[in-house]
Automatic annotation (TrEMBL):
The lineage of its organism: Eukaryota, Fungi, Dikarya, Basidiomycota, Agaricomycotina. The keyword Iron applies. This is TauD/TfdA-like domain-containing protein. Belongs to the TfdA dioxygenase family. It comes from Antrodiella citrinella. Keywords: Dioxygenase, Iron, Metal-binding, Oxidoreductase. Its cofactor is Fe(2+). Transmembrane segments: none annotated. InterPro entries: TauD-like_sf, TauD/TfdA-like, TfdA_dioxygenase. It comes from the Eukaryota. Residues 18-85, 127-378 form the TauD/TfdA-like domain. It holds the Pfam family TauD. SUPFAM superfamilies: Clavaminate synthase-like.
């Protein structure tokens, strides 16, 4: 069977030139029973295009787990650990993820009342809402009735403590309601808006995020490592996000380290700001701005090309939380402008596989309680950590 690739249908708002290599729809493959050759081609295409869409799939949770694991055969646990999210009562994720009893690596997400689903007798799912996470003012009820929405939280799927960031995420639309058009409003002082369908998942390319930076910020990015908070989704649980969902406001609302669940310094993660694609060798800017606490900036190497006047040429450690957030926002905010966002508009039985170390994504949409939406999500704590820029990369971009 031949693997056929078809370019995605981009909205008119997207910069199709910059995104010409991003995303492909895959045809001619049954994802539930791929041959070794078919999988090898799918794996290559994923790292080349960062996001693959399969239509009208029939996929059990067991098959979804097996497919996800094939990208990292040594991985075993869900990205946040098997059966750990629901045990952490203060985690921001607890109300959003429900573990399937028979396949703990697969999570149930969605909206509305669901009965007798994969071993769960009944459950009321809640789609992520900016009302529970963003700083006020929120959208008015009138705005939401008119179809105004916001990005919830820009992120990659990762625990960022103890477990290595997953290589891929698979997201399967089990039940998708009718999806009228909504308007995502940025509400950050800009006039930015983006037309999306109800419940779309927004993606931005980490490669494009890096590529559009000016030279001085490219230099800073390739020289910087980011330290994340221990148990970051508990740490940020009382804090409030910016209206774009890109990072947190600094109001002193984070949970104090001494009040977090017991943690070990050896499990705190410090990761490069820029991650290297294992197939293309391209650089992807991958920062989870909500979870970051410190920046470690290396000096400009003596062998670097003297082309810019970069920030912190001698290197530094930045511990002031407001400064950390301001730097990350300056670097990342341009790439979530409407011209750089691909909103995937879901159909029932869509399967999306995305390169979790190469893109950021956010939920969207304002659902009513009677709008039933059912998705299965799987990502696995990786068997290794992402690689940062090589010395050659640092010399080139510094």
């Amino acid at each position: 069977m031949t693997v056929e690739t078809v370019p995605l249908q981009f909205p008119a708002s997207l910069d199709a030139d910059l995104y010409r290599d991003f995303g492909r729809e895959i045809r001619g493959v049954d994802v539930s029973k791929m041959t070794e050759d078919e999988f090898a081609e799918i794996e290559r295409l994923l790292y080349q295009h960062d996001l693959l869409v399969f239509r009208d799939c029939d996929l059990s949770p067991e098959q979804q787990y097996a497919l996800t694991k094939a990208f990292d055969p040594s991985s075993e646990n869900y990205g946040h650990g098997n059966n750990k999210v629901e045990k952490s009562e203060r985690s921001l994720l607890r109300s959003l993820l429900t573990t399937l009893p028979n396949v703990p690596q697969v999570q149930l997400i969605g909206n509305g009342l669901l009965e007798n689903h994969e071993g769960i007798p009944n459950i009321t799912l809640k789609h992520p809402s900016h009302r529970t996470f963003h700083r006020t003012p929120h959208l008015s009820a009138e705005d939401e009735d008119r179809g105004i929405t916001r990005f919830y939280r820009w992120h990659m799927d990762a625990a960022l403590y103890e477990f290595a960031p997953p290589k891929v995420t698979t997201l399967y639309g089990v039940r998708v309601p009718d999806a009228p058009t909504q308007t995502c409003r940025y509400d950050d002082g800009s006039t930015d808006e983006l037309e999306v369908s109800l419940g779309a998942t927004a993606f931005v390319s980490g490669r494009v995020m890096f590529d559009i930076l000016p030279p001085e910020l490219k230099s800073l990015a390739v020289r910087t490592r980011i330290q994340y908070a221990p148990h970051p989704f508990v740490w940020m649980s009382s804090a409030r996000a910016k209206p774009t969902g890109l990072g947190l406001e600094t109001e002193g609302l984070e949970v104090a380290y001494e009040s977090l669940p017991q943690w070990e310094a050896s499990k705190v993660q410090t990761l490069p700001m820029v991650w290297k694609n294992p197939v293309t060798n391209g650089l992807h800017l991958q920062s989870h701005p909500c979870a970051a606490t410190q920046l470690f900036v290396d000096p400009v190497p003596e062998t670097a090309s003297d082309k810019t006047s970069p920030p912190h040429p001698l290197g530094t450690q930045i511990t002031n939380l407001q400064e950390v957030r301001d730097i990350l926002h300056e670097i990342q905010r341009p790439a979530i402008a409407p011209r750089y966002v691909y909103p995937h508009n879901w159909n029932q039985k869509d399967l999306v596989i995305f390169h979790n170390r190469g893109v950021l994504h956010s939920a969207l949409g304002s659902f009513k309680p009677d709008q039933i939406r059912v998705f299965h999500q799987c990502n696995l704590a990786a068997s290794d950590f992402p690689l940062g820029p090589s010395l050659e990369d640092v010399n080139r971009w510094s």
